Amino acid sequence: MTTKALIEQIHKKKSFLCIGLDTDMDKIPTYLLSEDDPIFSFNKAIIDATHKYAVAYKPNIAFYEAYGIKGWKSLKKTIEYINHNYPEIFTIADAKRGDIGNTSAMYAKAFFQELAFDSVTVAPYMGKDSVEPFLEFPNKHTIMLALTSNEGAFDFQTLKTNEQELYKTVIEKSKSWKNSDQLMYVVGATKAEYLGEIRKIIPDSFLLVPGVGAQGGRLEEVCKYGMNKDVGLLINSSRAIIYASETSNFAEIAAAKAEVIQGQMAEQLESL
Ligand SMILES: O=c1ccn([C@@H]2O[C@H](COP(=O)(O)O)[C@@H](O)[C@H]2O)c(=O)[nH]1
């Protein structure tokens, strides 16, 4: 999907909500466990109920890998289901990959070709040649970790190297890489106060912002410091939406949660 198409969807749905499909067999309603593919059944119900309020879905790959071959099958069915039924939705494989060049090229093939995601998250620690293979795929997006939502972000990402914080150097350097217009960046909602500085370096890039809801980040604050003229934000919420209820009407309750967030996003869009 092109960035232009993503922006059009955001305005059409008045939403920049990304719903995280962090599907955990220990948390889904127990009656689903007797189904042939409980993870897919859960995802399908959530997607069908919430797609009106969201512009993106983000399966976190760890939740599928944890179940081996069965998990990969559920992941493949989920991405195929979204691409077939809701082709207007932007899809993110939250895989946090990155390795020497020829290995990164295989990761890129896995997520962009075999699984046909629109984007994949990548850890930048191994540098330019570990990220550039992902940028070779037209109309696919590489979402690089910049300043993450967790406490450990302060261990390395905010350390000063050459007079400035490492995350700033990472973002600045990435701008000179081949096809850098296909880059997006992860910035945690819990680090909203840093967004002003980040926007000085990358005013036009899209940011994937996890950490609202269960991690305590605030939507209004993220919008205040992070929104740009094209919106430029995909705000993710996983557990607070998909596990809002454990009852048989879990999908309806997830949709109600998503609708509330979409309403708040619509208000923010009015101020653009
Ligand atoms: O900095 C980061 C990067 C990725 N994540 C991922 O986003 C979701 C957040 O889930 P919630 O349930 O809404 O807290 C999850 O998949 C994380 O692995 C992040 O939280 N922070």
From TrEMBL:
SUPFAM superfamilies given for it? Ribulose-phoshate binding barrel
Q: Where is the active site?
A: K96 (proton donor)
Any single GO molecular-function term of the entry would be: orotidine-5'-phosphate decarboxylase activity
Supply the InterPro entries for this chain.
Aldolase_TIM, OMPdecase_type-2, OMPdeCOase_dom, RibuloseP-bd_barrel
What pathway is this protein said to act in by its record? Pyrimidine metabolism; UMP biosynthesis via de novo pathway; UMP from orotate: step 2/2
Listed EC numbers: 4.1.1.23
Protein's name according to its UniProt entry? Orotidine 5'-phosphate decarboxylase
Its gene name is pyrF
A Pfam family hit: OMPdecase
Q: Which family does it belong to?
A: Belongs to the OMP decarboxylase family. Type 2 subfamily.
UniProt keywords (A-Z) are: Decarboxylase, Lyase, Pyrimidine biosynthesis
Under catalytic activity, the entry for this protein gives: orotidine 5'-phosphate + H(+) = UMP + CO2
**Enzyme group, top EC level?**
lyase
Query: Is Methyltransferase included in the keywords of this UniProt record?
Result: no
